[in-house]
């Protein structure tokens, strides 16, 4: 099944590349008029390397699929977690277009003997924390991906309490302890 990709870098951060492009364009334009055998080739090379490095450094995405959630990017944390039956994806809409995504679940008792002695009960733990940029459209995209009906999207996004079960997931909207509205997508069936 396809995945959805959410940007973890604001697009206005890429404006840093514009001065480097301007310097490289000027260097290419005036390269033929500079005397000497080296000309402006080092400046052109450094500008191009700076553009590529800045783009690679800022390239960070969050990939969500029915099987896993993970960070993509050379300089990202590269965390990942499996999404399967019984786990919950919790979405918080923050101010200024920031979205926080958490994956809660339980994979059973720990494998290490000394940890198993300390924890005899199986509680839900936070298995993944992610931040991305977007607004209502991004939350709609996530909900649509998990099979939420188009007619329920306005109700989910604008209400404080909502609960409905779909074919593979169940969606609940509730205020958490900090009075923030949380959208909980519980995976009922592993795909």
Question: Which key features would you list for this structure?
Answer:
191 residues, alpha+beta, 4-stranded antiparallel beta sheet, elongated
Write the layout of secondary structure elements.
Elements: E1 4-7, H1 17-30, H2 41-58, E2 61-64, E3 68-72, E4 80-82, E5 88-93, E6 98-105, H3 113-118, E7 125-133, H4 136-145, H5 153-158, E8 162-165, E9 169-175, E10 181-187
Antiparallel strand pairs: 1-2, 2-3, 3-4, 5-6, 5-10, 6-7, 8-9, 9-10
Helix pairs in contact: 1-2
Broad structural category: alpha+beta
Poorly predicted regions are none
Q: What strand line-up does the widest sheet have? A: 7-6-5-10-9-8
Summarize the biggest pleated sheet. Answer: 6 strands, antiparallel
Structure description:
- There is one protein chain.
- With 191 residues, this protein is an alpha+beta fold.
- The mean pLDDT is 91.
- It starts with a strand and ends with a strand.
- The chain has helices at 17-30, 41-58, 113-118, 136-145, 153-158; strands at 4-7, 61-64, 68-72, 80-82, 88-93, 98-105, 125-133, 162-165, 169-175, 181-187.
How would you briefly describe this protein structure?
Helix content is 28%, strand content 30%. The protein is of the alpha+beta class and 191 residues long. Strand 8 (162-165) and strand 9 form a beta hairpin.
């Amino acid at each position: 099944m396809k995945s959805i990709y959410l940007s973890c870098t604001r697009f206005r951060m890429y404006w840093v590349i514009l001065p480097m492009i301007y310097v490289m364009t000027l260097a290419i334009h005036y390269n033929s008029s500079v005397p000497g055998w080296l000309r402006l080739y080092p400046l052109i090379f450094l500008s191009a390397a700076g553009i590529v490095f800045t783009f690679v450094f800022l390239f960070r995405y969050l990939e969500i699929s029915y099987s896993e959630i993970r960070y993509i990017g050379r300089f990202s944390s590269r965390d990942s977690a499996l999404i399967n039956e019984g786990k919950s994806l919790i979405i918080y809409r923050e101010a200024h277009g920031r979205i926080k995504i958490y994956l809660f679940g339980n994979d059973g008792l720990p494998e290490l003997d000394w940890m198993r002695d300390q924890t005899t009960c199986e509680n839900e733990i936070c298995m993944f924390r992610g931040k991305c940029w977007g607004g209502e459209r991004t939350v709609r995209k996530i909900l649509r991906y998990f099979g939420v009906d188009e007619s329920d999207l306005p109700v989910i996004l604008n209400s404080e309490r909502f609960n409905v079960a779909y074919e593979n997931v169940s969606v609940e909207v509730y205020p958490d302890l900090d009075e923030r509205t949380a959208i909980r997508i519980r995976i009922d069936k592993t795909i």
